[in-house]
Design brief:
Elements: E1 4-9, H1 19-32, E2 37-43, E3 55-56, H2 61-68, E4 85-88, E5 100-104, H3 108-111, H4 118-132, E6 136-139, H5 142-151, E7 157-159, E8 183-188, H6 197-208, E9 214-219, H7 226-234, E10 243-245, H8 251-260, E11 263-266, H9 275-283, E12 287-290, H10 295-299, E13 304-306, H11 311-323, H12 325-339, H13 344-362
Helix pairs in contact: 1-13, 2-4, 6-7, 6-11, 9-12, 11-12
Length: 363
């Protein structure tokens, strides 16, 4: 069978990587190992320094997005000659006469545009226009697919879940010495409203008085909710000194935190997938999370779930995961099995079949 030639947007692989960057990188690696797909990498950026084989569309991304949000120009056909399908891996796919696929990681910014930056909202406008003009959607979870269908009526949506990202071994030396010998709850993610961290801080406050050996670690760069989080921490009184803002952590520190935490807390208001859930399962740490978005879909029976804004439920679930040894063992065992269901080989196989279907439908 002749390989399907796919124009593949490698933009998320440049610069500091978030979950989007790591997932696109893992997909690219898995697809590159297949004989039924031939990737033709492209990039819309004047800042990145791509490899020689990468086709750079000679227009700055900010300019391109402003144009593509309102028109079908400039078209990218001349720079993507020889491909059969174009895959925009991060909400944006350029206008071409070929079949197009655009990956949607989550729909939080579509529901809450006032909480998103102008650049993110422009990307959303480009995505909506592309879908209206025939682009298919790759959703990374059924929850994301349902949201796309609700928010962009008429979208043709295909669900292909991500795989689990590898978690590196933790460093031997503790990167945060103050946590050695302490129990701690860890939350990993940008300090943004979607992560619902003030609710977690309030739940921690209810647990802290009876557990003097317990800390809370918030590992993530500052975001649009830092002021509200600070206010929640200040309201803890003396327990406020037991909340550690670790900032954006490297992969080794993230691994160390997960391997040494007592619980991963993930009380998000919405998630399109949820890699920290699978990271915690690999590290063997119990998970307490909300039941929002794709979290139940990814976590399955390997987490204690509750309504995102219910402080009482979150407090009770954290207490059980901290103190009940049977619950801890059950969650860890379930997590090891659950994580095995998220394979990049399976993801690449399903994506290859989707590329072929799109190419054949247009011929």
């Amino acid at each position: 069978m002749e390989a399907v030639r796919v124009g593949f947007d490698t933009g998320p692989l440049y610069g500091p990587k978030s979950g989007v960057g790591f997932s696109v990188e893992a997909l690219h690696r898995a697809l590159a190992e297949r004989s039924d797909v031939q990737l033709v990498d492209y990039l819309v950026s004047f800042r990145a320094r791509p490899e020689p084989a990468v086709r750079r569309l000679p227009i700055p991304a900010a300019v391109a997005h402003r144009c593509w949000a309102h028109t079908g120009h400039p078209r990218a056909d001349r720079w993507l000659q020889g491909v059969q399908v174009v895959h925009g891996t991060n909400y944006v796919v350029p206008p071409v006469r070929l079949p197009r696929l655009v990956t949607v990681h989550d729909c939080w910014f579509l529901r809450s545009p006032h909480q998103a930056s102008a650049a993110v909202n422009r990307a959303g406008a480009v995505m909506r226009r592309a879908i209206a003009n025939g682009a298919a959607v790759h959703a990374v979870s059924h929850a994301t697919a349902d949201a796309v269908r609700e928010l962009v009526p008429g979208a043709r949506v295909h669900v292909v879940p991500w795989g689990a990202l590898p978690l590196p071994p933790p460093p031997v030396a503790a990167p945060i010495p103050d946590l050695v010998g302490r129990r701690f709850i860890v939350a990993i993610g940008t300090l943004e409203r979607r992560k619902n961290l003030p609710t977690l801080v309030r739940a921690f406050g209810r647990l802290a008085a009876d557990r003097p050996d317990l800390d809370l670690v918030l590992a993530g760069r500052d975001g649009d909710d830092r002021t509200a989080i600070d206010a929640a921490v200040d309201a803890l009184g003396s327990a406020s000194t037991r909340v550690l803002f670790a900032g954006r952590v490297d992969e080794g520190t993230r691994s160390w935190l997960l391997h040494h935490a007592s619980v991963l807390a993930y009380p998000s208001l919405d998630e399109g997938f949820g890699f920290p859930l699978l990271d915690a399962m690999q590290a063997g740490v119990p998970v307490v999370a909300s039941d929002a978005g794709a979290i139940p879909e990814v976590a399955g029976n390997a987490a204690l779930l509750g309504p995102a804004l219910d402080v009482d439920a979150l407090t009770a679930n954290l207490a059980e995961a901290l103190d009940d040894h049977d619950t801890r063992r059950r969650l860890v065992a379930a997590g090891h099995g659950r994580r095995q269901q998220f394979s990049w080989d399976r993801c690449a196989q399903e994506m290859a079949a989707l590329y072929r279907r799109l190419a054949e439908d247009s011929s």
